[in-house]
Write a structure and sequence with these properties.
- By secondary structure, the chain is α+β, with helices and mostly antiparallel strands.
- It has helices spanning 2-20, 63-77, 102-106, 119-127, 135-145, 159-173, 177-186, 240-251, 258-265, 335-349, and strands spanning 24-31, 34-42, 58-59, 210-211, 220-221, 237-238, 269-274, 277-282, 287-289, 297-304, 307-317, 320-328.
- The strands form 3 sheets. An 8-stranded antiparallel sheet has the order 2-1-12-11-10-9-8-7, with helices on both faces. A two-stranded antiparallel ribbon has the order 3-6.
- Helix 1 (2-20) packs antiparallel against helix 10 (335-349), helix 2 runs parallel beside helix 6 (159-173) and helix 2 crosses helix 7.
- The longest helix has 19 residues, at 2-20.
């Protein structure tokens, strides 16, 4: 029965890749705390010559936010940070006219702007992909644009908010973010391939990631030209098996006390009905569907040049606690998420 289900899952992913002209996907599924399926499907290269290995390296893009939130909640649990304290309590030189709290940064209700929709940012990435802005430049953008709404009175996704959280984590612990995540998450789970790159030389083993962002039409591999620090809050490199292990361990209480995980999982703001979600909300570093037929589904997506990725936990999928991660080596909006849900439906119906 299990082997038949694994073959069905491989087949549905393979068919989806062919239909949408995606080179490959690495997927990993954990059921009741055990690895059920870990596999590479399709190819590393767009010429379909080199099979994609199970442990292929990908940028996980904004899934990094869930890991930053996890590290922050860890420090809250240790009494080193307070969720409802103002940013200025930890970053005295970051000046705002209005008080913004750590909780508001985590759930995107701070009112801080995002650089993702700023034309100057997109043009700079396209023109100088190997020369990212400094932290100071990103924070200057926040000051220049100002708050978009009164903190706590709206919702708007903000990468700059997570940059501030990273700065707070580093200042509070005296550790760079990669060492902090290593201490809180990666080392306890014995992960071997998950890390934060800081230079182009760190990404020589990245899976080729295909995008037309830089050329306008022709697909190219972005791994040797795009600098990871264009993601202001830092971006983790991981594999499907290791990412699934992280997300599964989080919701099993193996990284944080479950009372803290519950705080992360309670939506602060509801976005309502959304494709694939019945009632989508955002908690502390997590997207949450509170009305899914599979229980309170929690996780995150990630997108950027070359990749579309997603990792979600389903508390009651075919009666089992299930985590599904999908990492795809071409950028296409919500494609990793769509694969996660395609696999979830197959499991539910099996």
């Amino acid at each position: 029965m299990d082997q038949d289900l694994r073959e069905q899952l491989r087949l549905v992913v393979k068919q989806s890749l062919i239909k949408d002209q995606i080179p490959g996907a690495a997927v990993a599924i954990h059921v009741n705390g055990q690895a059920f399926l870990e596999t590479g499907i399709g190819y590393q290269d767009r010429n379909h010559e080199i099979p994609l290995p199970t442990d292929a390296n990908f940028y996980i893009y904004s899934i990094t936010k869930s890991l930053i939130a996890t590290a922050l909640l860890h420090l809250v649990g240790e009494g080193l940070l307070e969720l409802d304290a103002p940013v200025q309590a930890y970053l005295t030189d970051f000046l705002l006219d209005t008080s913004v709290t750590l909780r508001q940064l985590l759930c995107h209700t701070s009112g801080l702007p995002d650089y993702g929709r700023v034309t100057a940012y997109s043009e700079a990435v396209k023109t100088n992909p190997s020369s990212p802005w400094s932290t100071e430049a990103f924070l200057d953008l926040a000051h220049t644009q100002g708050l978009q709404f009164v903190p706590g009175k709206g919702w708007a996704y903000s990468n700059i908010g997570y940059l501030l959280l990273k700065c707070i984590l580093e200042k509070t612990t005296g550790l760079p973010i990669q060492k902090l995540l290593n201490k809180v998450i990666f080392s306890p789970l014995s992960l071997k391939k998950t890390f934060i790159p800081t230079a182009l030389d760190d990404v020589d083993k990245l899976t080729p990631g295909y995008t037309a962002f830089f050329s306008g039409d022709e697909l190219q591999d972005m791994t040797r030209v795009y600098h990871a620090s264009w993601v202001a809050h830092s971006v983790v490199i991981s594999t499907a098996p290791e990412l699934a292990k992280i997300i599964d361990a989080l919701f099993r209480g193996e990284i944080l006390d479950l009372s803290l995980v519950e705080q992360m999982s309670n939506p602060i703001h509801n976005l309502g009905k959304y494709p694939l979600f019945e009632n989508l909300g955002y908690g502390l570093g997590l997207f949450v569907d509170t009305e899914s037929p599979y229980g309170k589904v929690k996780g995150h997506t990630g997108e950027g040049p070359g990749y579309s990725v997603a990792a979600f936990h389903f508390p009651r999928l075919a009666g089992s606690s299930t985590t599904i991660a999908a990492l795809v080596n071409r950028d296409k909006h919500d494609y990793g998420l769509a694969l996660v849900y395609e696999m979830a439906h197959i499991i539910a119906e099996h």
